[in-house]
Design brief:
The chain is an all-alpha fold. The protein has one domain. It has three helices and no strands. The longest helix is centred in the C-terminal third of the chain and has 12 residues.
């Protein structure tokens, strides 16, 4: 069974850059959250984003992209759909104010499907993490 309510296209995935075209990203000296913190506080089951919810982006019945039950599987799913761009991390779509599916970042974003809208704490955390090179840390 596929639950379409939680799905989203993730926009258009960025063109894959050749390995030698990767942009070196040097994290700024700040207190940006780690991806572990983002996943635990915003993307895991029972969180405001709850990507890891069955019928949304968790197996079984995930829609569009797979987040899964761990921060590593969720990060990989975001990379696979183009939300995170490891070749040029600061351009990751998840942090783009006009292309992100996350309504916290893009006011027109449809996610989370069952509760889109402003969430400044989540937006600020995602944007700080993207500015700090969007690492799977």
């Amino acid at each position: 069974m596929l639950v379409a309510a939680c799905g989203s296209s993730g926009g258009t995935a960025p063109d894959a850059a050749a390995p030698d075209a990767a942009v070196k990203c040097v994290p700024p000296n700040n207190t940006a959250p780690t991806y572990t913190e983002l996943y635990t506080k915003y993307f895991a089951l029972g969180t405001p984003g709850h990507c890891a919810t069955p019928g949304c982006h968790d197996d079984p019945d995930h829609t569009v992209w797979l987040c899964g039950k761990t921060k590593d599987s969720c990060y990989a799913g975001m990379v696979n759909i183009g939300l995170i761009n490891p070749s040029n991390p600061t351009t990751s779509l998840i942090g783009n104010s006009t292309s992100s599916d996350l309504s916290w970042v893009n006011p027109n974003g449809p996610m989370p499907f069952d509760g889109p809208g402003p969430f400044p704490e989540g937006r600020d955390a995602v944007l700080a993490w993207v500015a700090a090179c969007a690492q799977n840390n």
